[in-house]
Structure formats: C-alpha cells, structure tokens
Amino acid sequence: MSSNALFDTVPSGGAALTIRRPDDWHVHLRDGAMLAAVLPYTAAQFARGLIMPNLVPPVTSVAAAAAYRERILAARPSGSDFLPLMTCYLTDHIAPDEVEKGHAEGVWIAAKLYPAGATTNAHHGVTDIPGIAPVLERMEKIGMPLLIHGEATDPAVDIFDREAVFMDQSLLPLLKRHPGLKVVIEHVTTAETLDIVRANAPRVAGTITPHHLMINRTSIFQGGLRPHLYCLPVAKRERHRLALRKAATSGEGCFFIGTDTAPHARGAKESACGCAGVFVGATALQSYAQVFDEEGALDHLEAFASLNGARFYGLVPNAGTVMIEKRKSRVAASIAVGDQEVVVFRGDEDLAWSIAEAKPRRWSIDLRRGFV
C-alpha cells in the first residue's frame, strides 16, 4: 500500500479507502449551458482536470485558452477549488511561437493532436503529422507534452483496427523522429498499445478510461444498440478489456486516470448518426474503485488516480484527501441541460462504491513549480 492510502471502516460496516485527491487527465467540459451542467460532477471528484480543446471553434490561440479557463473557473460550484489545466488544439498551420508562448505563460500545459476527422469536433485537426514537425520540435525543446488521440482516419481501415493502424503507421515513427518528446497516448484500448506505452516509458504514458475497463465491444450491442456506450476509440474485444484492467491496477507508473468524460445531449446520441462519447463524470471514481477492488488492487488505486499523472506532468500531487466507501449508491440516470438531458454512464444502477467525503486544500498555480 502507498504511504498515503488508508483503509478504514465506516459506520455502515463497509470498507473505506482514503487517498490523495485525484486528478482527471482527460476531460471534456464543452461550454455554455453544458459546461455549467457537467462541471460540478468532475469538480466533486477531482482536484484538477486536463481540459480538452475541441470546442467550436477549437482552442488554437493563447487568448482563447485563457478566456476558456476563465469561463470554467466562473462556472465552478460555490466553494469549489477545482483547477482546470488547459491544452492547445494543434492544426496544420499553428505556429510554434504561439504554442511556446502559451506554455511559457502557464496557459497551456500540453498540446492535443487530433488526426483530422478522428472524433468529435476534430475536423480542424492535423492532416499530416510529419508536416507539423516544427511545432513538435519546439515542444520537444521546451518539454511540453503531446497528447494523442491515436486512431487512423482512413475510411478503408476497420473501426476496430483504427488504433492499431495508427500506432504502427503514425505513433511509432513519430516517437523515432522526436526522441525527446513527451507523449500521452490517450484512452488506450488495446493490449498492443499498452505494450507500446511500457516499452517507451517514462517519456510515454497512457490514460485509461473507466468505461473501457468495464465494457467490451459486445456491450454496445447487448439487447439492441446502446448508443450511450459508443465512444471513440470504440471498445474492443474482451481480451483487450482484461489487459486494460491488468495495466491500470498493476501499479506501473506509466498509466493513470483519463476519464474522457464526454457529454452529449441525448438527442445527439440517439440519432441517425449518433455522436461518440460517454459521460462518466458523475460515476468515474466509483467505477475505478470497483475495478481495483475486483482485481484485488485497491492498494494501487492512489498511484493510478493521484500520483502517476502528476509525476508525468511535473506537478505536485494534491495535498487534500478523498474517502471512498464500499457502500451501494445510485446516481441519477441523466442530468438536465436546459430542456435537454445527458445520460450518465452507469446512471440509475447500483454502484458498489461511493464517495464518502473530500477534504480539499486550496492551491495557488504555478505551472513551472506545480501547485503550492
């Protein structure tokens, strides 16, 4: 067990685990009414969140990122100390100087590479990865991590093979061309990608979502089409799910939380061409705890949730704590967003674990030194 993780019992008689407050290293908060509706759920579970930049229009300038950060801070629930960490949306034409400026000013902690058309609002993404070499070289020089949605976009590639093809054709050559570049392969879904992360650690890391730990590709079709389990990268075969569970619970420092919580209105999911994304912001930590418990690895949860990601990004781990209790609870099936609603992953189901309490500590932010 790590020195900060504490097991205890609670009045209900169930087990409880106290860990440092965790971070979510992959968060979609959207904007406007959606931001106001979903942010409280992430802020209730995580001290910090790495915010994805695929808004409409995308966050491609330092000014846009700073403004978005202010909107997030303004939308926090009363008393919340949640800190958004911002990312830059890479395009074919973004200037290296703009990327470096945002990083130097503490606005951008990392840059996000979406292959053009790979996922939601990715049509402004990169069409030719070698073509943005000047940006990647600058990032390599200044130590700015690159976050990658690792899927090939060639329509001839089977959707279940898109991650594997991207790794072979794009990711491995990129790592060879830029040997000093820090890279996060986000939302890993295959056993083979896990091996790539391990082989290239510590400069390469991988995030793992709660839903990819709990569903496989058959889950999307059980009893009929289940659009609220559809995400990109799509869930894979059972052997991959089992490999993900082994990696997440292993204690290996190259893996950490990235929920990829991605809210869409019910109508956008349940349509002739439904959007990709699973809203896990309300049930993420409970789901991770269940997986670690089932795998007999609760002593590794704190590292995965609270330590490994901070270490990779060179930040100080959170000083506050959260207690997670082994007690059944339920979260609403959906949340309201104006006159629409967003369906919650595992909403209206019995959850084996509950968040019992959190003890925050307020931070001042300095990306060069971490949080103090």
Quick overview:
This protein is α/β, with parallel strands linked by helices and 372 residues long.
Q: Mind explaining what this structure looks like?
A:
With 372 residues, the chain is of the alpha/beta class. The protein contains 11 helices and 16 strands. Helix 5 links the parallel strand 7 and strand 8. The longest helix is centred in the middle third of the chain and has 16 residues.
Throw out a few tags for this protein.
alpha/beta, 11 helices, 372 residues, 4-stranded antiparallel β-sheet
Write down the overall geometry.
globular
Radius of gyration computed on alpha carbons: 19 Å
What value does the average pLDDT take? Answer: 93
Q: Number of helix segments?
A: 11
The main pleated sheet reads as: 8 strands, parallel
Ends distance? 25 Å
Number of strands: 16
Q: Which regions are unreliable across 5 or more consecutive residues at pLDDT < 50?
A: 1-11, 362-372
Overall structural class, as computed from helix and strand content, comes to alpha/beta
Determine the fraction of residues in helical runs and give it as a percent range. Answer: 25-40%
Secondary-structure element order, N to C: EEEHEHEHEHEHEHEHHEHHHEEEEEE
- Please indicate the percent range of residues in DSSP E strands (runs of 2 or more): 15-25%
Oligomer: single chain
Strand order of the largest sheet: 3-4-5-6-7-8-9-10
